[in-house]
Amino acid sequence: MSHDATAACDGWDGSECEGTVHCPPRCPRFVDKQGARWTLRPAADEDAAALAEMYEAFGTADRAQGLPPVTRSRRADWIESMLAEGSNVVAERDGELFGHAMYTPTDAARPELAVFVHPSMQGRGVGTELCKHVIADAAAGGREGLELHVESGNRVARSVYRTVGFELAERRGDIRMALDLDDAIATEVRWPPLAREGPDDPLPREPVPIEFDGPRVAGADD
To answer: Which CA distances in Å does 102 have to 10, 58, 146, 188, 206?
Structure first.
């Protein structure tokens, strides 16, 4: 978010914010189910160490499809790869990272989405908000759709993905879900806060793409 966009916002109450041409595809300010304030922003190479620290807390039950990798060295390589090859967004609170989402590869028509939330912060809506940011970024970047893979037994993650518009595409071992970015939700997630929360349909505006710098899906909270 640019300085001008920041100046246009009145604190954390963005309900009257109409957005500006400087705004990213989705407002970076987010208040979770417990009233905590978050910033969701594009990831930078400098976030690698903080992401590595976040993933240290992931145990066996928090991994899916082998992600995040178990060993530190493999996690470091994976994080570096995601930051280099994907479109990434992180969820930050009080200077610490507790969420990470991405789609990859960035030049694919229908790249793959992945979402990860720190075990201590699940159930607060952070995973859902991360998904919306990735959808907004992918739509603004001209992608045709998004896909993901989720374990059939991960009911929480499947519920989150359905909430943001993903539908069952294939059931063969893991479940493949897909979202076409001409679906209404790909437009709705880019509305400014006033349009999302107000009574009237918003006037169309062309969002300014931002470059998140992320694959496959492990799990998500709600």
So the answer is: 29, 18, 11, 19, 22
